[in-house]
Amino acid sequence: MLPIIALAWVAQTPGDAPADACLVARHQYEALALEDALNTAERGLAAAPAVPACLEVQALAQLALGRTEAARATLTTLFEVAPDHQVEDPSLAPSTRALIEGVREEVRPLSATVTGRWVVATALRLDVALEGGLRGARRVRFRGQVQPDAHPITGEVPLVGRAATATVTVPAGVRAETLSLSGEALDEAGRVVVPFSSQILLPGRPAPELVVVAPPPAEEGGGGIPWWIWVVAGVVAAGAVGTAVVVSQPRLPNADGTVGRVEL
User: What are the residues whose beta carbons fall under 8 Å from the beta carbon of 125, sequence distance 6 or more?
Assistant: First the structure.
């Protein structure tokens, strides 16, 4: 404890060169003097804002004191300033490490990648993949044109994880070689999280599908009986057979154990 007290005393002694406030705060944190560590880190940040070492100690002290929301705000500032900064503390619980990494991921710069492929000749599938911190993004809104015929496309689709998929109609007569697309990822309230724009070369368009309609069967001999008459006749015949079978069933058995009598 004596070296830590000496460091703190040196940092506060008028006329002497000030000690590294972030280093003092780190020693105080490791000695479990959490309030002192927090105050020292805040003094260091007041003199030199956004220093990663002081921000780290400030966040760790806030987490240890149960001030989770304040720690989230501090970690957000830390990872905005230094996205790859590694928080060093082997005593952290797995849940605390997960919280820290979750904040880091949310703060990462968000970008969008657009790809397109044909489902059929008149249906173009668009895939928008987001990379980085989602920051509450829930859906993607887009607009653009298929070139060179300047055919417009628009839409809005929900995000599933980090991906959004839409299928747009492109008529067969429209020439479609490239796609110019712009849009934005939106949060639940409709606020823009990140805008994006892309121009891509479309793959070769498949040939239109041919639909063959078979004509009804021709009537034989020109003067033959139409096919529908044979269908009706078959139904009537089947009904007659069914009636005959029902009527011919024995329903009056003899007392001598024979099959019985049949009434027609």
Answer: 116, 117, 118, 119, 165, 166, 167
Hunting for tokens 């298929």 — which residue is that?
Answer: 146
Which structure tokens are listed for 48?
A: 């030199």
Q: How far apart are CA 57 and CA 35, in angstroms?
A: 11
Note the pTM of the prediction, 2 decimals. Answer: 0.52
DSSP secondary-structure letter at 257?
S
Q: Which residues contact 155 (CB under 8 A, 6 or more apart)?
A: 126, 141, 142, 143, 166, 168
Task: Yes or no: say if 243 and 264 are a contact pair by the CB < 8 Å rule.
Answer: no
Long-range contacts of 65-70 (CB under 8 A, 24+ apart): 65/34, 65/35, 65/38, 68/99
Name all contacts of 207-211 with Cβ < 8 Å and 24+ positions apart: 207/121, 208/121, 208/122, 208/172, 209/120, 209/121
Tell me the pLDDT of the chain (264 aa) as tens digits.
434 433 443 344 333 333 489 999 999 999 999 999 999 999 999 988 889 999 999 999 999 999 999 999 999 999 988 988 999 899 999 999 999 998 988 888 878 899 999 999 999 999 999 888 787 899 999 999 999 999 999 999 999 998 999 999 999 999 999 999 999 999 999 999 889 899 999 999 998 875 555 566 665 555 555 655 555 555 444 444 444 333 334 444 444 444 444 343
157, β-bridge pairs: 140
